[in-house]
């Protein structure tokens, strides 16, 4: 069965590799255009484009599927399209090209967390269980009928990056199983059932920590936005980036946002107990251990995050 693979970030690469290992004929790869990366804004291929080039696969680069991209997809003559975090909408003309449609691997248990950032929202909201779903793509936002699911426990220390790495691997297996069932004529898609929740793309503002919130909510927020868009707070009028924190239920005397360096760690007050900082990045500096940053404060006692 000829497959068009659509994907962009690193979490989509395992699916591409698994399809090839399983013997599928990947006719072409659709990914977003090269984008500037880093401080020097070097134009860089997407992780999927880079891997496709290494594998010798034809690559279609398009930030949106316009007439030109649609024509290129049609020229590949796919029987089915597999899509994993491509990052753009698939218009009706393109949806109609493969006889077996577009099968999307989505990193949630649909209809929970429909949208661009399902794993981040799952972590932020404290889900204990998440997973991945393969479904038939249609015009609605992640509304199509489901072929298969898998579940994954959310660990208390999980960042969205940690969880995505695991789901990228297990989800790739689910995608291959789904496409194999489609090829064998044994796949059955059933309508989604359950409570719908939405997971829109997160902005930089979503990473700002509100120290008035309880410590558990703060930890979930920080974990959910790590590594992207990143957690931060304000210190002396400048943005101060934060890595994951640890709950310190043995300390609750600090005011929200009040910082207390000490031998037991660098603590920050919240709306409940304190949290202990791990890695931090002051403005204009590299990420460092919180203890190293705190040593640079000298005798200052008025440190307060906003």
TrEMBL record:
<comment type="similarity">
    <text>Belongs to the Fmt family.</text>
</comment>
<dbReference type="Pfam" id="PF02911">
    <property type="entry name" value="Formyl_trans_C"/>
</dbReference>
<feature type="domain" description="Formyl transferase C-terminal">
    <location>
        <begin position="201"/>
        <end position="297"/>
    </location>
</feature>
<dbReference type="InterPro" id="IPR005793">
    <property type="entry name" value="Formyl_trans_C"/>
</dbReference>
<feature type="domain" description="Formyl transferase N-terminal">
    <location>
        <begin position="2"/>
        <end position="178"/>
    </location>
</feature>
<protein>
    <recommendedName>
        <fullName>Methionyl-tRNA formyltransferase</fullName>
        <ecNumber>2.1.2.9</ecNumber>
    </recommendedName>
</protein>
<keyword id="KW-0808">Transferase</keyword>
<dbReference type="InterPro" id="IPR002376">
    <property type="entry name" value="Formyl_transf_N"/>
</dbReference>
<feature type="binding site">
    <location>
        <begin position="108"/>
        <end position="111"/>
    </location>
    <ligand>
        <name>(6S)-5,6,7,8-tetrahydrofolate</name>
    </ligand>
</feature>
<dbReference type="InterPro" id="IPR044135">
    <property type="entry name" value="Met-tRNA-FMT_C"/>
</dbReference>
<dbReference type="Pfam" id="PF00551">
    <property type="entry name" value="Formyl_trans_N"/>
</dbReference>
<dbReference type="GO" id="GO:0004479">
    <property type="term" value="F:methionyl-tRNA formyltransferase activity"/>
</dbReference>
<dbReference type="InterPro" id="IPR041711">
    <property type="entry name" value="Met-tRNA-FMT_N"/>
</dbReference>
<dbReference type="InterPro" id="IPR036477">
    <property type="entry name" value="Formyl_transf_N_sf"/>
</dbReference>
<dbReference type="InterPro" id="IPR011034">
    <property type="entry name" value="Formyl_transferase-like_C_sf"/>
</dbReference>
<keyword id="KW-0648">Protein biosynthesis</keyword>
<dbReference type="InterPro" id="IPR005794">
    <property type="entry name" value="Fmt"/>
</dbReference>
<comment type="function">
    <text>Attaches a formyl group to the free amino group of methionyl-tRNA(fMet). The formyl group appears to play a dual role in the initiator identity of N-formylmethionyl-tRNA by promoting its recognition by IF2 and preventing the misappropriation of this tRNA by the elongation apparatus.</text>
</comment>
């Amino acid at each position: 069965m000829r497959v068009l693979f659509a994907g962009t970030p690193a979490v989509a690469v395992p699916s591409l590799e698994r399809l090839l290992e399983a013997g599928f004929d990947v006719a072409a790869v659709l990914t977003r255009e090269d984008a500037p990366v880093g401080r020097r804004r070097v134009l860089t291929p997407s992780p999927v484009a880079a891997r496709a080039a290494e594998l010798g696969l034809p690559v279609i680069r398009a930030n949106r599927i316009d007439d030109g991209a649609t024509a290129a997809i049609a020229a590949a003559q796919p029987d089915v399209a597999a899509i994993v975090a491509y990052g753009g909408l698939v218009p009706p003309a393109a949806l109609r090209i493969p006889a077996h449609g577009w099968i999307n691997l989505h990193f949630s248990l649909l209809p929970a967390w429909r949208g661009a950032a399902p794993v981040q929202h799952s972590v932020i909201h404290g889900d204990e269980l998440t997973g991945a779903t393969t479904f038939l793509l249609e015009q609605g936002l992640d509304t199509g009928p489901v072929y298969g699911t898998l579940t994954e426990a959310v660990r208390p220390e999980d960042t969205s990056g940690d969880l995505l790495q695991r789901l990228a691997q297990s989800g790739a297996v689910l995608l291959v199983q789904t496409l194999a069932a489609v090829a064998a004529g044994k796949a059955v898609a059933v309508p989604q059932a359950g409570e719908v929740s939405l997971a829109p793309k997160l902005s930089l503002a979503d990473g700002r920590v509100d120290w008035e919130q309880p410590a558990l909510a703060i930890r979930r927020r920080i974990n959910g936005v790590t590594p992207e868009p990143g957690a931060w707070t304000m210190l002396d009028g400048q943005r101060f980036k934060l890595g994951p924190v640890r709950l310190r239920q043995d300390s609750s005397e600090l005011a929200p946002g009040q910082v207390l360096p000490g031998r037991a760690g660098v603590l920050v007050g919240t709306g409940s107990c304190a949290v202990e900082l791990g890695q931090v990045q002051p403005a204009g500096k590299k990420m460092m251990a919180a203890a190293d940053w705190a040593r640079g404060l000298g005798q200052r006692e008025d440190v307060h995050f906003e």
